[in-house]
Amino acid sequence: xxxxxxxxxxxxxxxxxxxxxxxxxxxxxxxxxxxxxxxxxxxxxxxxxxxxxxxxxxxxxxxxxxxxxxxxxxxxxxxxxxxxxxxxxxxxxxxxxxxxxxxxxxxxxxxxxxxxxxxxxxxxxxxxxxxxxxxxxxxxxxxxxxxxxxxxxxxxxxxxxxxxxxxxxxxxxxxxxxxxxxxxxxxxxxxxxxxxxxxxxxxx
Length: 204
Description:
The protein is mostly helical. The chain has helices at about 1-25, 35-65, 75-95, 100-120, 125-150, 150-175, 180-185, 190-195.
Protein backbone atom coordinates (compact mmCIF):
# COMPACT_ATOMS: atom_id res chain seq x y z
CA UNK A 1 0.00 0.00 0.00
CA UNK A 2 2.82 2.42 0.74
CA UNK A 3 4.35 1.85 -2.70
CA UNK A 4 0.94 2.24 -4.36
CA UNK A 5 0.49 5.51 -2.49
CA UNK A 6 3.84 6.77 -3.77
CA UNK A 7 2.86 5.76 -7.31
CA UNK A 8 -0.36 7.72 -6.86
CA UNK A 9 1.65 10.77 -5.84
CA UNK A 10 3.89 10.48 -8.88
CA UNK A 11 0.94 10.05 -11.25
CA UNK A 12 -1.09 12.92 -9.81
CA UNK A 13 1.90 15.25 -9.61
CA UNK A 14 3.00 14.48 -13.16
CA UNK A 15 -0.49 15.09 -14.53
CA UNK A 16 -0.70 18.46 -12.74
CA UNK A 17 2.74 19.50 -14.03
CA UNK A 18 1.72 18.59 -17.58
CA UNK A 19 -1.33 20.84 -17.36
CA UNK A 20 0.66 23.70 -15.86
CA UNK A 21 3.45 23.26 -18.42
CA UNK A 22 1.05 23.45 -21.35
CA UNK A 23 -0.48 26.64 -19.93
CA UNK A 24 2.94 28.25 -19.38
CA UNK A 25 4.25 27.37 -22.84
CA UNK A 26 1.19 28.64 -24.70
CA UNK A 27 2.29 31.94 -26.18
CA UNK A 28 -1.18 33.25 -26.85
CA UNK A 29 -2.11 33.19 -23.17
CA UNK A 30 -4.84 31.22 -21.46
CA UNK A 31 -7.53 33.26 -23.18
CA UNK A 32 -6.47 31.84 -26.54
CA UNK A 33 -6.90 28.24 -25.38
CA UNK A 34 -10.15 26.37 -26.05
CA UNK A 35 -12.56 26.31 -23.12
CA UNK A 36 -12.23 22.52 -22.93
CA UNK A 37 -8.46 22.79 -22.54
CA UNK A 38 -8.67 25.54 -19.94
CA UNK A 39 -11.32 23.68 -17.92
CA UNK A 40 -9.39 20.41 -17.92
CA UNK A 41 -6.21 22.31 -17.00
CA UNK A 42 -7.87 23.73 -13.90
CA UNK A 43 -9.39 20.37 -12.97
CA UNK A 44 -6.06 18.64 -13.54
CA UNK A 45 -4.27 21.05 -11.20
CA UNK A 46 -6.89 20.62 -8.48
CA UNK A 47 -7.19 16.83 -8.66
CA UNK A 48 -3.49 16.25 -9.29
CA UNK A 49 -2.43 18.60 -6.49
CA UNK A 50 -4.73 17.01 -3.91
CA UNK A 51 -3.64 13.53 -5.02
CA UNK A 52 0.06 14.37 -4.86
CA UNK A 53 0.17 15.83 -1.35
CA UNK A 54 -2.51 13.52 0.02
CA UNK A 55 -0.70 10.43 -1.26
CA UNK A 56 2.58 11.57 0.26
CA UNK A 57 0.87 12.01 3.63
CA UNK A 58 -0.71 8.56 3.30
CA UNK A 59 2.67 7.01 2.44
CA UNK A 60 4.23 8.80 5.40
CA UNK A 61 1.58 7.38 7.74
CA UNK A 62 2.14 3.86 6.43
CA UNK A 63 5.93 4.23 6.73
CA UNK A 64 5.66 5.49 10.30
CA UNK A 65 7.22 8.84 9.46
CA UNK A 66 3.88 10.49 10.25
CA UNK A 67 1.83 9.23 13.21
CA UNK A 68 -0.89 6.87 12.02
CA UNK A 69 -3.44 8.32 14.43
CA UNK A 70 -5.83 11.02 13.20
CA UNK A 71 -4.06 14.39 13.28
CA UNK A 72 -6.42 17.33 13.41
CA UNK A 73 -5.42 20.89 12.54
CA UNK A 74 -7.18 23.72 14.33
CA UNK A 75 -9.75 25.08 11.89
CA UNK A 76 -8.63 22.55 9.29
CA UNK A 77 -12.10 22.03 7.83
CA UNK A 78 -12.67 25.77 7.54
CA UNK A 79 -9.27 26.19 5.90
CA UNK A 80 -10.08 23.40 3.44
CA UNK A 81 -13.44 25.02 2.66
CA UNK A 82 -11.71 28.36 2.11
CA UNK A 83 -9.12 26.78 -0.19
CA UNK A 84 -11.91 25.10 -2.15
CA UNK A 85 -13.72 28.39 -2.54
CA UNK A 86 -10.49 30.09 -3.61
CA UNK A 87 -9.86 27.42 -6.26
CA UNK A 88 -13.42 27.76 -7.57
CA UNK A 89 -13.20 31.56 -7.80
CA UNK A 90 -9.79 31.56 -9.47
CA UNK A 91 -10.83 28.73 -11.79
CA UNK A 92 -13.86 30.72 -12.85
CA UNK A 93 -11.70 33.76 -13.53
CA UNK A 94 -9.32 31.65 -15.60
CA UNK A 95 -12.20 30.23 -17.64
CA UNK A 96 -13.54 33.75 -18.17
CA UNK A 97 -10.14 34.90 -19.41
CA UNK A 98 -9.59 37.34 -16.54
CA UNK A 99 -6.66 35.50 -14.93
CA UNK A 100 -3.42 33.95 -16.13
CA UNK A 101 -0.72 31.51 -15.10
CA UNK A 102 -0.30 33.12 -11.67
CA UNK A 103 -3.88 32.10 -10.83
CA UNK A 104 -3.12 28.53 -11.90
CA UNK A 105 -0.09 28.46 -9.60
CA UNK A 106 -2.24 29.66 -6.69
CA UNK A 107 -4.82 26.99 -7.51
CA UNK A 108 -2.07 24.34 -7.46
CA UNK A 109 -0.76 25.55 -4.09
CA UNK A 110 -4.29 25.56 -2.67
CA UNK A 111 -4.84 22.00 -3.92
CA UNK A 112 -1.55 20.82 -2.39
CA UNK A 113 -2.47 22.34 0.96
CA UNK A 114 -5.98 20.89 0.85
CA UNK A 115 -4.57 17.42 0.14
CA UNK A 116 -2.53 17.55 3.34
CA UNK A 117 -5.42 18.89 5.44
CA UNK A 118 -7.82 16.27 4.10
CA UNK A 119 -5.51 13.30 4.66
CA UNK A 120 -3.95 14.08 8.04
CA UNK A 121 -7.20 13.66 10.05
CA UNK A 122 -7.86 10.19 8.62
CA UNK A 123 -6.73 7.33 10.85
CA UNK A 124 -4.57 4.42 9.79
CA UNK A 125 -7.46 1.94 9.86
CA UNK A 126 -9.13 3.87 7.05
CA UNK A 127 -5.94 4.44 5.06
CA UNK A 128 -6.40 1.53 2.57
CA UNK A 129 -9.72 3.01 1.45
CA UNK A 130 -8.13 6.47 1.18
CA UNK A 131 -5.27 5.12 -0.94
CA UNK A 132 -7.77 3.43 -3.26
CA UNK A 133 -9.70 6.70 -3.52
CA UNK A 134 -6.50 8.60 -4.29
CA UNK A 135 -5.76 5.98 -6.95
CA UNK A 136 -9.07 6.85 -8.58
CA UNK A 137 -8.13 10.52 -8.40
CA UNK A 138 -4.80 9.75 -10.06
CA UNK A 139 -6.57 8.13 -12.99
CA UNK A 140 -8.93 11.08 -13.27
CA UNK A 141 -6.00 13.52 -13.25
CA UNK A 142 -4.28 11.51 -15.98
CA UNK A 143 -7.48 11.58 -18.05
CA UNK A 144 -7.62 15.37 -17.63
CA UNK A 145 -4.01 15.55 -18.81
CA UNK A 146 -5.09 13.54 -21.84
CA UNK A 147 -7.66 16.20 -22.69
CA UNK A 148 -5.02 18.92 -22.26
CA UNK A 149 -2.61 17.10 -24.57
CA UNK A 150 -5.41 15.90 -26.87
CA UNK A 151 -4.17 12.33 -26.39
CA UNK A 152 -6.91 9.72 -26.75
CA UNK A 153 -4.81 6.81 -25.32
CA UNK A 154 -4.06 8.90 -22.22
CA UNK A 155 -7.75 9.74 -21.78
CA UNK A 156 -8.75 6.08 -22.08
CA UNK A 157 -6.01 4.84 -19.73
CA UNK A 158 -6.81 7.49 -17.13
CA UNK A 159 -10.53 6.80 -17.32
CA UNK A 160 -9.95 3.07 -16.83
CA UNK A 161 -7.73 3.64 -13.78
CA UNK A 162 -10.17 6.17 -12.35
CA UNK A 163 -13.18 3.89 -12.80
CA UNK A 164 -11.37 0.85 -11.41
CA UNK A 165 -10.15 2.85 -8.41
CA UNK A 166 -13.64 4.16 -7.70
CA UNK A 167 -15.13 0.65 -7.83
CA UNK A 168 -12.39 -0.74 -5.58
CA UNK A 169 -12.91 2.11 -3.11
CA UNK A 170 -16.63 1.33 -2.87
CA UNK A 171 -15.98 -2.40 -2.41
CA UNK A 172 -13.35 -1.80 0.28
CA UNK A 173 -15.55 0.64 2.16
CA UNK A 174 -18.45 -1.83 2.06
CA UNK A 175 -16.18 -4.63 3.29
CA UNK A 176 -15.12 -2.45 6.24
CA UNK A 177 -18.75 -1.43 6.85
CA UNK A 178 -17.62 2.19 6.59
CA UNK A 179 -19.41 4.76 4.38
CA UNK A 180 -16.97 6.58 2.09
CA UNK A 181 -18.43 9.92 3.18
CA UNK A 182 -17.70 9.07 6.82
CA UNK A 183 -14.09 8.32 5.95
CA UNK A 184 -13.41 11.37 3.80
CA UNK A 185 -15.79 14.10 4.96
CA UNK A 186 -16.48 13.21 8.56
CA UNK A 187 -15.91 10.74 11.34
CA UNK A 188 -12.17 11.14 11.11
CA UNK A 189 -10.37 8.29 12.76
CA UNK A 190 -13.58 6.39 13.53
CA UNK A 191 -12.10 3.28 11.95
CA UNK A 192 -9.29 3.31 14.51
CA UNK A 193 -11.69 3.93 17.39
CA UNK A 194 -13.95 1.02 16.31
CA UNK A 195 -10.97 -1.31 16.03
CA UNK A 196 -9.70 -0.42 19.52
CA UNK A 197 -13.17 -0.62 21.09
CA UNK A 198 -13.72 -4.10 19.66
CA UNK A 199 -10.37 -5.31 20.92
CA UNK A 200 -8.92 -5.88 17.44
CA UNK A 201 -6.76 -2.78 17.43
CA UNK A 202 -3.21 -2.48 18.75
CA UNK A 203 -2.76 -2.46 22.50
CA UNK A 204 -2.30 0.95 24.08
